[in-house]
Amino acid sequence: MTAILFTAFGACALVPYIFFRCKGKLMPGLLLKAAASVFFLLTGCAAALACPAERFGQVKYLFFGVLIGQVFGLLGDLLLDMKDMYAQHKNTYTFSGFLAFLIGHLFFMAGLLKTYGFYWKYLPVMLGAGLVLIAGVLATEKPLKFVYGKFKGISLVYGAVIAASVAAAFCAWRFGGRSPQALVMFIGLALFLLSDFVLSGTYFGQGMDMPIHYTLNYVLYYGGQFTIALSLLAAA
């Protein structure tokens, strides 16, 4: 199956990317990261093409939401690596990368809720998830010795949005007919969220920028993105 093949190609690009990233070889690392991210886009496109025409009309908003969201994910991937390549613009690239991922998650949520339906009982779950994450970030900031600096605001907003997107996927599965697609997407978004926990330590913590931290972050992140893309096969 083409989607599985693209996933395998993505894994083949990811392994050397992690190696180069840990070695500080930023330019070849950036090219490999771009390739790995293009492959999760191709995985989603292949999954969309596998959908029968009569079924596509029912899930088209989900496909568009995931694919557009992952385009912003690709953009965020490039921006966040470029912050280390162009130190004079580090703050701009970091902020822009966070914003790109935030927009991507809004598209994920829109695709889910448009496809599986939005009900008011979802709202407390989604808002609650966002508020819990914000409270957790604020409560652990000092104990973990995280220094967010000027990125505290965007970090809190982004964290609330990704938590809400995970909650939206859960609600779509739990209350939207127990769709296998929604469940797989929930798992993918949860992996994405876990990768951001690791990334927060790498960016804002102390002693958490070792190869093991980079490796864990990228395995979780790309695992999440490819799982989200592959969830479209279940929708097909």
Defining traits:
mainly alpha; about 0% strand; about 85% helix; about 240 residues
- Sheet with the most strands? none
Strand content: under 5%
The proportion of residues forming helix, as a percent range, comes to over 70%
Q: Number of helical runs? A: 8
Euclidean distance between termini CA atoms: 13 Å
Structural class: mainly alpha
Shape: globular
Total domain modules: 1
Count the strands?
Answer: 0
* N to C succession of SSEs: HHHHHHHH
What's this model, at a glance?
The chain is mainly alpha-helical.
Protein described:
- It is built from 8 helices and no strands.
- The protein is mainly α.
- The chain has one domain (2-235).
- The relative contact order is 0.14.
Lay out the secondary structure.
Layout: H1 2-22, H2 26-49, H3 53-85, H4 90-116, H5 122-140, H6 152-175, H7 180-204, H8 211-235
